[in-house]
Design goal:
Blueprint lengths: L10 E10 L2 E11 L4 E5 L6 H8 L7 E6 L2 E3 L4 H6 L2 E4 L11 H5 L9 H5 L6 H14 L17 H13 L5 E5 L7 H16 L3 E5 L3 H7 L2 E6 L2 E6 L6 H9 L11
Parallel strand pairs: 3-8, 3-9, 6-7, 7-8
Antiparallel strand pairs: 1-2, 1-4, 4-5, 9-10
Helix pairs in contact: 6-7
Bound molecules: adenosine-5'-triphosphate.
């Protein structure tokens, strides 16, 4: 069978094993993420969600197993390798520089220099170009809560900071973005704003992996939900086939992995 563009996952892994001394964090995990979908990863504390995405994003190297990007096997040694393959991660701490403005944060590490000797020799930055591009990138993601691109990040609300971190992750050609608990510290309205950005990413054709303990959020925004339990991927369900209660029951082991499935 020939794989078509649609049937080849943007990012996939087979048989991932990762141990930390005696602890088996991943016990032979498969995952498939397609372009234009939101795949939620759920599981109890210690189920292996973070370890899985660390292996997928080059922050950890699996002991066993393979990872493929658009059908081609890859070996990530460090996060830069994954980033070069278009896989971006937004961690809970967001790694933004709070004392700098939004535009500068978006371009941290990829600064635009002035043309000619001013940029080449004196390394002067083209702030105007960065502000203009930052405005375009934030606007393209439909992030309406940000009005002023020169606002300092520490003065932003939690939801706005999350949006800036996501914009930075996808502004430079990312095809896959991993969001680790993006709404954990947010109020209801801010959570909705972040979920809007997540939908926007999906509608633009990116693949999104969403780690979350918040079942209403997961069921609101995910196309598919992979359930991790004790280092294994025990089931992949959808909001159409399973209720949140069934997913949680599978997650905790109260229901067998092949049960549920609203009729
Ligand atoms: N660096 C490490 N050293 C030792 N053990 C680790 C390390 N990282 C993870 N573990 C262990 O691996 C297992 C899986 O942890 P992981 O953080 O992947 O789970 P998780 O599903 O993300 O949990 P949570 O929801 O609490 O973040 C746990 O038992 C954890 O204690």
């Amino acid at each position: 069978m020939t794989a078509t563009a649609d049937s080849t996952p943007a990012l996939s892994a087979r048989g991932l094993v990762k141990t930390y001394g005696p602890v088996v964090a991943l016990d032979g995990v498969d995952i498939d993420l397609y372009a234009g979908e939101v795949l939620a990863l759920i599981g109890d504390n210690g189920a292996g969600k973070s370890t899985l995405v660390k292996c997928l994003t080059g922050a950890e190297i699996p002991d066993v197993g393979t990872i493929s990007v658009a059908g081609a096997e890859v070996r990530f040694r460090r996060p830069q390798d994954a980033r070069a393959a278009g896989i971006e991660t937004v961690y809970q701490n967001l790694s933004l520089a709070p004392e700098l403005d939004i535009a500068t944060n978006l371009f941290l590490g990829r600064e635009v220099r002035r043309r000619g000797p001013l940029g080449r020799v004196l390394r002067m930055l083209d702030h105007r170009a960065m502000r203009r591009q930052a405005e375009e990138k934030v606007g393209a993601l439909g992030i309406r809560t940000i009005q002023n691109i020169t606002q300092v990040v520490e003065t932003l609300s939690g939801g706005q900071r999350q949006a800036v971190a996501i914009a930075r992750a996808v502004a430079f050609g990312g095809r896959v973005v991993v969001l680790d608990e993006p709404t954990a510290a947010l109020g209801v309205r801010e959570t909705q704003q972040v979920l809007d950005v997540v939908r926007e990413l999906r509608d633009r054709g990116l693949g999104v992996i969403l780690i979350s303990h918040n079942m209403p959020n997961v069921f609101e925004v995910a196309d598919r939900i992979q359930i991790q339990r004790l280092g294994r991927a025990v089931a992949v369900v959808t909001p159409q086939t399973h209720t949140p209660a069934e997913a949680v029951a599978i997650m905790t082991g109260a229901l067998p992995a092949d049960s549920g499935g609203a009729s």
